[in-house]
């Protein structure tokens, strides 16, 4: 049996186990635990909790059914000459030209067998002259219109009316496609078209759209504000890489509005992009599937964009998504829609219900508070009943989600995300439910903002912290007063909620931004060229504002000296000018030079592609070694300690060698960094010294300051001469290389000696006994 089949059987077993225990749990909850005779408040609270649990289990069952056997569609290999014409539509309204440049640049660099078949358009709903100039500069089309009816959907429909290619790629203004985007997505259409030629009309399958993940090159707010950009994936990864792909088998993949290739025929069949909803993408995809088109999601990241960088923009985005999905479900008469199959209806109903998670979370948080703080009975049961009915269901649900989400999401993080956002979704979802709709389409702002005061957003969570703490104190008091341990379940519930609420407060309070551009960790071969030297290295990271490069040997670079940096990854070649901002010896062998880019010269397009034509370097899986306690500790400690940045501009080279000063006085040099020398403290060291390193190479030193026991720091007075004279510059470099080679040999000799003279543990014990 193959490994894949074993995993599928294991997943299915857990699925049925969890479903079985959940059904038993819900039966117990329904018939034995609702406090119908303890007053109206208790009855309402108890029934509310039961209802959200039932709907939550429905959502979980739909998800588990989809996830237990995922349909991954391999990328087809098709003849290059079969690739059709494609219109690439980039929708924009008020985004800055700098953001659009990167997206258009990515589109221009997309590979295709015949580039004349790719027609790129900036669809500008803002009628801006700077966008028209950008289009002309980049050699792409520019489309605008007199009115703004239908917002983004109307903008795209107008673009459709003046273009004609059979396939249409849609991108948001910030989404930068990778070079293989069209080659991968169009292959599915071409492959199906070739297969259809051998089938009768009634048996032919038509593809509606191919949806790729919406990935992000910057940490999202959840990663950034919680200091977790190195331990958790982007919050949207779970939806696009797991949930979307799992919906392939029910043909209910959600059209995400960007990073998508769509059939023009399918769009024409449904009257174009749907204009009567603020989530035109969600509605358009549903209409296309209702017409019988097959729509696929793939988990291969082919484009990346900019996640919202401030809390207000994030909330506005989620409110629009939530209201739009509820609005679409209502306008499409989802339950009674005869064009959708049963599986499609169930999946879309689960998608709509998801946006009521704010009410579900409110009830989950308030239920233990009502009992412990206000004395309102919500669930009538004993500790033994909880252990028998609830505990197996809880454990199996957590394990099932972790196993089936491929370590992208756990129950812990789902609960935390919902707790963070729920207060801001309560009123909007309620209004939308009663047909009080949001009329205006709000574009999610993507430009980086200055720090804002977020504390008003924290008020609901702060109130819940106070109520939870009161409840915890009460439960502990009751436990000691009665001698019963039944309250341990309520305490567990309260502490679990309190953890999520406190982490939500940390999230809302935010974190100071110290970088203006996002860094991608990537190794790109490069060459650093100074006045006298040319050194090969490899990048550690790269951003629009700078890059960090590892060199095997340190070099002397003045702070204000322009340095030529040449980067080449085999696809793109960029030659830019930079200035050094910091130097560090990270691993004892390589030297990390950080450069600020001061002039892109003629390499802006290629340099941007070096940064963005790749999958973002942020985590794609959860760090399983990170516990909840460690997450909490990290958020406390990192907010209490101010980060220190050591920006040494010169390499500090360890020397630890004796030299003659003034021709007769032996001194120990501890280290050297071109501008300064640290000497071991001893009597007789004068204010000025002449240190002979080797024949023809001397340092003229002037005392700078004493460092206590750390030694005496001297300034290299003839540093300018050593730097500017080619012969002396070369001698200094050769002397440093000899020092480093000697140190490396000594380290290696010590290691070899240790291996030869190591005493086995049992031999050592025997010698001790003797």
Fold and architecture overview:
This protein folds into four domains: 3-69 and 356-443 and 455-509, no CATH class; 80-354, Spore Coat Polysaccharide Biosynthesis Protein SpsA, Chain A (Alpha-Beta Complex); 523-612, predicted glycosyltransferase like domains (Thrombin, subunit H); 653-755, Thrombin, subunit H (Beta Barrel), CATH 2.40.10. The chain has 22 helices and 23 strands.
**CATH-defined architecture of the largest domain:** Alpha-Beta Complex
Task: Assign a percent range to the helix content.
Answer: 40-55%
Low-pLDDT runs: 759-770
Number of strands: 23
Across the major sheet, the strand order is 3-2-1-4-8-6-9
Count of discrete structural domains? 4
Computed CA radius of gyration, to the nearest angstrom: 32 Å
The first-level CATH class of the largest domain is given as: Alpha Beta
Shape: globular
Q: What percentage of the residues does DSSP assign to strands (E)?
A: 15-25%
What profile does the largest beta sheet have? 7 strands, mixed
């Amino acid at each position: 049996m193959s490994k894949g089949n074993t995993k599928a059987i294991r997943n299915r077993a857990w699925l049925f186990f969890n479903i079985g225990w959940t059904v038993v749990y819900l039966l117990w909850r329904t018939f034995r635990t609702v406090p119908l005779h303890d007053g109206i408040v208790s009855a309402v609270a108890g029934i509310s909790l039961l209802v959200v649990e039932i709907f939550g289990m429905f959502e979980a069952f739909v998800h588990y059914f989809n996830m237990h056997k995922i349909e991954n569609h391999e990328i087809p290999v098709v003849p290059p000459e079969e690739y059709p014409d494609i219109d690439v539509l980039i929708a924009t309204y008020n985004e800055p030209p700098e953001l659009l440049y990167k997206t258009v640049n990515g589109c221009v660099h997309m590979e295709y067998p015949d580039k004349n078949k790719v027609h790129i358009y900036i669809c500008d709903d803002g009628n801006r002259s700077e966008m028209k100039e950008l289009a002309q500069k980049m050699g792409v089309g520019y489309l605008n219109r007199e009115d703004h009816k239908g917002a983004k959907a109307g903008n795209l429909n107008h673009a459709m009316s003046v273009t004609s290619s059979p396939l249409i790629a849609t991108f948001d203004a910030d989404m930068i496609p990778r070079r293989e985007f069209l080659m991968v997505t169009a292959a599915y259409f071409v492959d199906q078209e070739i297969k259809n030629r051998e089938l009768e009309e009634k048996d032919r399958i038509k593809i509606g759209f191919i949806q790729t993940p919406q990935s992000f090159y910057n940490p999202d707010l959840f990663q950034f504000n919680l200091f977790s950009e190195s331990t958790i994936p982007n919050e949207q990864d779970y939806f696009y890489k797991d949930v979307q792909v799992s919906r392939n088998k029910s043909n209910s993949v959600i059209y995400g509005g960007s990073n998508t290739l769509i059939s023009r025929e399918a769009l024409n069949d449904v009257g174009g992009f749907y204009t009567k909803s603020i989530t035109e993408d969600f509605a358009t995809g549903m209409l296309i599937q209702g017409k019988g088109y097959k729509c696929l999601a793939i988990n291969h990241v082919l484009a990346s964009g900019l996640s919202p960088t401030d809390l207000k923009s994030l909330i506005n985005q989620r409110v629009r998504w939530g209201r739009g999905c509820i609005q679409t479900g209502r306008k499409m008469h989802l339950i009674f829609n005869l064009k959708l199959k049963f599986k499609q209806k169930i999946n879309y109903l689960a998608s709509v219900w998801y946006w009521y998670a704010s009410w579900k979370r409110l009830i989950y948080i308030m239920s233990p508070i009502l009992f412990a703080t206000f004395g309102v009975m919500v669930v009538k049961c004993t500790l033994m009943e909880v252990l028998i009915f609830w505990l197996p269901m809880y454990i199996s649900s957590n394990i099932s989600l972790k196993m089936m989400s491929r370590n992208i999401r756990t129950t812990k993080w789902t609960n935390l995300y919902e707790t963070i956002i729920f207060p801001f979704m309560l009123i909007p979802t309620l209004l939308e439910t009663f047909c009080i709709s949001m009329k205006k389409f709000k574009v999610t702002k993507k430009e980086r903002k200055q720090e804002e005061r977020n504390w008003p957003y924290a008020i609901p969570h702060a109130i819940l912290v106070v109520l939870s703490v009161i409840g915890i104190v009460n439960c502990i008091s009751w436990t000691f007063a009665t001698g019963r341990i039944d309250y341990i379940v309520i305490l567990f519930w309260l502490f679990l909620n309190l953890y999520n609420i406190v982490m939500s407060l940390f999230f809302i309070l935010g974190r100071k931004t110290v970088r203006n551009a996002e860094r991608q960790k990537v190794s790109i071969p490069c060459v650093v060229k100074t006045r006298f030297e040319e050194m090969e290295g490899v990048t550690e990271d790269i951003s629009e504002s700078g890059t960090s490069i590892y060199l095997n040997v340190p070099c002397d670079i003045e702070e204000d000296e322009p340095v030529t940096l040449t980067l080449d990854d085999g696809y793109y070649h960029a030659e830019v000018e930079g200035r050094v901002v910091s130097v560090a010896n990270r691993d004892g062998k390589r030297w990390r030079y950080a450069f600020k880019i001061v002039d892109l010269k003629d390499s802006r397009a290629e340099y941007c592609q070096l940064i963005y034509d790749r999958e973002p370097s942020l985590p794609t899986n959860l760090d399983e070694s990170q516990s909840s306690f460690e997450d909490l500790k990290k958020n406390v400690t990192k907010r209490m300690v101010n980060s220190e940045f050591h920006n040494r501009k010169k390499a500090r080279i360890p020397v630890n060698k004796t030299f003659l000063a003034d021709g007769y006085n032996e001194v120990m040099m501890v280290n050297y960094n071109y501008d300064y020398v640290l000497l071991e403290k001893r009597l007789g060291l004068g204010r000025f010294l002449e240190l002979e390193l080797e024949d023809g190479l001397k340092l003229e030193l002037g005392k700078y300051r004493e460092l206590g026991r750390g030694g005496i720091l001297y300034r290299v007075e003839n540093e300018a001469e050593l730097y500017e004279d080619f012969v002396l510059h070369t001698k200094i470099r050769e002397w440093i290389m000899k020092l480093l080679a000697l140190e490396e040999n000594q380290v290696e000799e010590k290691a070899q000696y240790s291996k030869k003279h190591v005493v086995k543990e049992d031999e050592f014990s025997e010698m001790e006994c003797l």
